[in-house]
């Protein structure tokens, strides 16, 4: 069973703070890692992808990958109320079948 | 129309009904997917079609029957469903060999009574 684990939250952070979202995965053969954001009542949208160990930055978002620890994280700097959503971690080894976590609910309070 | 569109947005059906979900993508993608999203469960991949050919069936019960007549259209035919099949059904598309970069439709919220 290829599992992707996330803390369901809710994770509450004040506006302007850094939100840190974490994900662990069980399949050591995983090659590609993604973060999707899902607003309430909406469909998921891809916000970050990462393929190699280390950090990848895109605007206020930073994805971090540590394959040895089977751990991927998403940092959101200067969090805004509009960042309040559920963040889904997704992992794949095959390229076709994405394994999703249950998601972490983030609430950014003004 | 742009992106991935799904109809209907909401569907209520009895266990003996037959209904179909429709998905259409306007992105020029070659792969299409059905996912199921239930409360407090991860997104579950149901079916994958690549160039109209089914490449994955993730042990889905036969009461769910997919159809992909071309690379732009995907259907999910439903019959004799169970109440536990109530969920949000999401269609997605991607370029071939970039399957992880999925573009999702808005979903069909299905309730089985």
Question: Helix and strand layout, with pairings?
Answer:
The complex is a heterodimer of chains A (110) and B (113).
Chain A: E1 4-5, E2 11-14, E3 19-25, E4 32-38, E5 45-50, E6 54-58, E7 61-66, E8 71-76, E9 85-92, E10 99-100, E11 104-109
Parallel strand pairs in A: 2-11
Antiparallel strand pairs in A: 1-3, 3-8, 4-5, 4-9, 6-7, 7-8, 9-10, 9-11
Chain B: E1 4-7, E2 10-13, E3 18-25, E4 31-37, E5 44-50, E6 53-57, E7 64-70, E8 73-79, E9 87-94, E10 103-104, E11 108-112
Parallel strand pairs in B: 2-11
Antiparallel strand pairs in B: 1-3, 3-8, 4-5, 4-9, 5-6, 7-8, 9-10, 9-11
How would you describe the overall organization of this protein?
The complex is a heterodimer of chains A (110) and B (113). In chain A, 0% of the residues lie in helices and 54% in strands. Chain A has strands at 4-5, 11-14, 19-25, 32-38, 45-50, 54-58, 61-66, 71-76, 85-92, 99-100, 104-109. In chain A, strands 2, 4, 5, 9, 10 and 11 form a six-stranded mixed sheet that branches. In chain A, strands 1-3-8-7-6 form a five-stranded antiparallel sheet, with no helix packed on it. In chain A, a hairpin with a 6-residue loop joins strand 9 (85-92) and strand 10 (99-100). The model of chain A has no long low-confidence stretch (mean pLDDT 93). By secondary structure, chain B is mainly beta. The model of chain B has no long low-confidence stretch (mean pLDDT 90). Classes of the chains: A mainly beta (110), B mainly beta (113).
Which labels suit this protein?
heterodimer, A: 110 residues, mainly beta, 5-stranded antiparallel β-sheet, 0% helix, B: 113 residues, 4-stranded antiparallel β-sheet
Question: What's the short version?
Answer:
Helices cover 0% and strands 54% of the residues of chain A.
Q: What integer is the average pLDDT of chain A?
A: 93
How far apart, in Å, are the first and last alpha carbons of chain A?
40 Å
- Count of strand segments of chain A: 11
Helix-strand string of chain A: EEEEEEEEEEE
- Rounded radius of gyration of chain B (Å): 13 Å
Instruction: Please write the string of helix (H) and strand (E) elements of chain B.
Output: EEEEEEEEEEE
Task: Report the radius of gyration of chain A as a whole number of Å.
Answer: 13 Å
Oligomer: heterodimer
Number of strands of chain B: 11
Average pLDDT of chain B: 90
Report the uncertain regions of chain B.
none
Major sheet size, sense and barrel closure of chain B:
7 strands, mixed
| Overall 3D form of chain B | globular
Counting DSSP H or I runs of 4 or more residues, the number of helices of chain A is 0
Strand content of chain A: over 45%
